[in-house]
Specification:
Layout: H1 2-9, E1 13-16, E2 19-22, H2 25-28, H3 35-48, E3 56-60, H4 64-75, E4 79-82, E5 93-98, E6 103-108, E7 116-124, H5 128-140, E8 143-152, H6 157-164, E9 169-177, E10 180-184
Parallel strand pairs: 3-4, 3-7, 7-8, 8-9
Antiparallel strand pairs: 1-2, 5-6, 9-10
Amino acid sequence: MRRLRESLENAPVIMKGDYPYFIHPLTDGIPQIDPAVLKDAVNEIIKRIDIDSFDKILTVEAMGLPIGVALSMVLEKPMTVVRKRAYGLPGEVEVSQKTGYSSGRLFINSIGPGEKLLLVDDVLSTGGTMISVVEGIKKTRADIADIVVIVNKSKNISAIEEKIGKKIKTIVNIEIKDGKVRIID
C-alpha cells in the first residue's frame, strides 16, 4: 500500500469553486494510472472483503472502471457499471446524483432481485454518489454484501453510513489541508 499512499500524498489539489479537488490517477485517470498503484488498491480491497459473500461487482462510471475491471479479473467475478446515460433496458433504474461540484443522473442496469453485490468506488467525499447508487440498488431488490471505496475524503462518513444503512470500508482516509493531501490514519 506504500505506492498508493505516496501517490496520494503527492497528488495536486485544485479548487472547483469553493471545493478542494485532488487529482489522482485512480480518481481522475490523470496522470496515467500506474499498474503498481492500481494493484495496491485491489490487493487492499481483497484484504477487506469476504470474496464468497457476493456474486457481482458494481462500480460507478467513470473512475470506478479501472478498479472494478482489475478486481473482476483477479477475482473472476462479473462486473457491471452504473452509467451516466440511459439505455432504456428493462429494469433500468434512474437516480439523481449530487456531488460537491456537480449534479446529474445515474442509470443502473444488469442488477436483479436477490443478487449479492460488492459496490466499489474510487472516492467518497460528500456521499452524494454513494447515497444515490445505494437508493437505486434498493429499487432493484439486490443485496449489497459490501461497500469499499479507495479514498475517503468525507468528514461525515458515519452520517453517510447511517443514511444508506451500510458500513463503508475505506482503503485510505485523507484530508486536504493547506492545499495538500494528507493521509489520516
